[in-house]
Amino acid sequence: MSSSETVHDQRVGSPWVMLALATIGSVLNFWAWALLSPLGPLFRSTGQLGELSESDVSLLVAVPVVVGSLGRIIVGALTDSLGGRVMFPLVSALTIIPVLAVPFLALDSFTLLLVVGFFLGVAGTIFAVGVPYVNAWFPPAKRGLAVGVFGAGMGGTAISALTTVRLFEKGESLPFVITAALLAAYAVIAWLVLRDAPGRTRPTTSLAQRLRANATLPVTWMTCALYAVAFGGYVAFSVYLPAYLITAHGLEPADASMRMAGFVVVAVIARPIGGAMADKVGAIPVLGVVFAVTAVCAAMAAGNPPLHAGGTVAFLAMAAALGAGSGAVFGLIAQVTEPARVGGVTGIVGAAGGLGGFVPPLLMGYVYGRTDSYAIGLWLLAIVAALMLAMTFGPVRRLAEARGD
User: Fold this and answer.
1) pLDDT at site 5
2) DSSP three-state, residue 387
3) Nearest residue to 244 via CA among 54, 380, 42
4) Is 222 left (phi over 0), alpha (psi -120 to 50) or beta?
5) CA distances from 237 to 43, 305, 357 (A)
6) Which residues of 49-93 form beta strands (DSSP E)?
7) 358 CB-near residues (< 8 Å, 6+ apart)
8) Where are the alpha helices (DSSP H) in 102-217?
9) What's the chain's Rg over C-alpha atoms?
10) pLDDT digits (tens, 9 = 90+) for 294-310
11) Single pTM value for the model
């Protein structure tokens, strides 16, 4: 290719071992990325940071999301150039700094916690490292499954939901110190063991040129919209669901975090399934089912049914759909994007997904503060999912057919 050169590496590893190590890195960084989410409602109830509104809690949990999302644009492009062997340990090591800054610098100040949360967003950029890295290790027919397995690393948010509040109650620094230690160990292991795929292509144009070129591709903007709803919906619920369950259904913080973890686990399991199905039957049918289910379930949830009478089913079905959709989107990207551009396209699309998760918590908190209802936000999700369904069977299908999907 004129825009890239082949990188030769004498050290050859197993694709499945590399995938496993990349997925572990994703789990740990997603764990770190979500550390503030379970604590937001706790801080509000205890008054540890002063009197916080619902919007304050929404902002606290959303700041790492938006920074991690926008950072993916640069990190994805850097991964195309430097490779995952450099970027996995680098991102993991940099994340240690804000993780430790939370308990030792920011726990008594809402403003400082927002600042540290900004830098904690670095952890969320790991996704833009892993997708091009995994793509390079696997043939096109297996990339949907492989990227789906890597994407299951978002289950790190479930670990955070299950452990953070309990560990915090035993010692305020405990969840952060444990996470930092695991990130440090992983950074060392990743540097020593990870290999870049033989034959990996490295772009020869500048970062700015690649960003401009990738941003103008039709596949970039179409998959940005799809991923903003699929992964953005997952992120929004994974960070905001505890606050929603506590306020709308009167659950205790620990119970709400456990239920959020269940939502995450279902989405995590569904993600590689969505990627594998995209490999076998094509991404378009999978995405069609995903957005249809999401629209129906969001409309059901807007009626605020009791958790024991349909509410839980609606959220779990939506979790499965959003997880499968996240895997299918990157199956589509792998099928229609040239290898040297995958990192750059992934970074932009990943940013769109994260931003899709940033806006809803703020909107839900704002609307609830003025209406005492979450229905408007959930109806908006249903409408947007229906629009994505139409888009999937319109321009997205035409693009995929033109590229031979």
Assistant:
1) 45
2) helix
3) 54
4) alpha
5) 19, 17, 8
6) none
7) 62, 65, 66, 69, 232, 235, 236
8) 110-120, 126-137, 140-151, 156-170, 174-193, 207-215
9) 20
10) 999 989 888 878 777 77
11) 0.76
